[in-house]
Amino acid sequence: MEITYEQYGPAHADQLVAFLCGDTWPFHATAAVDPAEARRRIADGRYEGRDNRTFWITVDGERAGLVRLMDLRDDTPLFDLRLRSAYRGRGIGGRALAWLTTHLFTEFPHVRRIEGTTRQDNEAMRRAFRRSGYAKEAHHRDAWPAPDGEFRDAVGYAILRRDWACGTTTPPEWDDEPGPSGDDGAGRRRGGL
N-acetyltransferase domain: which residues (predicted)? Predict the structure, then answer.
């Protein structure tokens, strides 16, 4: 399977609308994209501009997905990754995540870290984050609106430039909260009280 990445340009607007509206996106806030909304987002510069850049994911010559890079002037950009239904579950998302990570750290020297968020029940994306060296940094309860009207937990991951360069993953320090009575969680008092 040959995977390549082709930068999106204004000439691709109709193809982008067809892509966004021609499938469902179960792990996005809106599972079905309205064509008028897609065109509005394109016109607003969400897919190309100073702060955004988009790439088609091409598998064996077919457009299988899309990587949208956002907040490119910031030192912590974000991204959106979408794969057509027929291409899900084949490891393409993980390879695209590895590609976009390398692309951002290589092409943008000011980038210190890359962040991504997914729904808690998107197990494939969570595996892809871990395999690509991203560390879980956040868990937000009932923070992600789902197409069924309910809310799901959102899980945030990030990779640091230094970890990417060394091939390591540095997890955050999770046990730094004081206990309920002001102790350090092990029964010892914190601070000057």
Answer: 3-162
